[in-house]
Amino acid sequence: MNDSDFPVAIREWPLQEKDITEEVCQKCGICCSMDLKPSWKDPRMMAALRVMIEGYDNITFTGDGIRIHCSHLKETKMGWKSMKCDIYDDRPQLCRDFNCVSWAKVSNNLEQYNRVLHKIGLTPVTFRDFPEELRGPDT
């Protein structure tokens, strides 16, 4: 069992929406990709999917599905592996409005929240790290 299995809401999160600045956002890129995991029963379908995505730089096979990266997300090397949006100043409104902390809080998704923490160099949290008074009611 991991922390994301606990059906308890968290009232206060160490990383807040206001902490996601342009600088933090540009170092991350988690929101610019998504994992798709089909529930196909026939293993040949997954093999066919692997063949279909070969040669696409922004789509990778994950073993149980695919990860699609936004075509505007580019890898940079600045002493660490980083991703950067090459249209950041002109990005669509949907991207401008997105806040990964808000998303993690609304979905009560500690796993996604920890991905963000790890990406920006902070220590991931576990449910037991939250004092009782910061935990919400059981859901």
Tell me about this structure.
The protein is α+β, with helices and mostly antiparallel strands. The protein contains five helices and seven strands, in the order βαβαββββαααβ. Strands 2-4-3 form a three-stranded antiparallel beta sheet, covered by helices on one side. A two-stranded antiparallel ribbon has the order 1-7. The chain has a two-stranded antiparallel ribbon with strand order 5-6. Helix 4 (100-107) packs antiparallel against helix 5. The radius of gyration is 17 Å and the shape is globular. The two termini are 17 Å apart. Mean pLDDT is 77; it is low at 3-8.
Oligomer: single chain
Could you give a short account of the major beta sheet? 3 strands, antiparallel
The SSE order reads EHEHEEEEHHHE
Helix content: 25-40%
- Overall outline: globular
Question: Which terms would index this structure?
Answer:
139 residues, alpha+beta, two-stranded antiparallel sheet
Strand and helix layout:
Elements: E1 8-10, H1 22-28, E2 33-36, H2 43-53, E3 59-61, E4 66-69, E5 73-77, E6 81-85, H3 93-97, H4 100-107, H5 110-119, E7 135-138
Antiparallel strand pairs: 1-7, 2-4, 3-4, 5-6
Provide a compact summary of the structure.
It is built from five helices and seven strands. It is 29% helix and 20% strand.
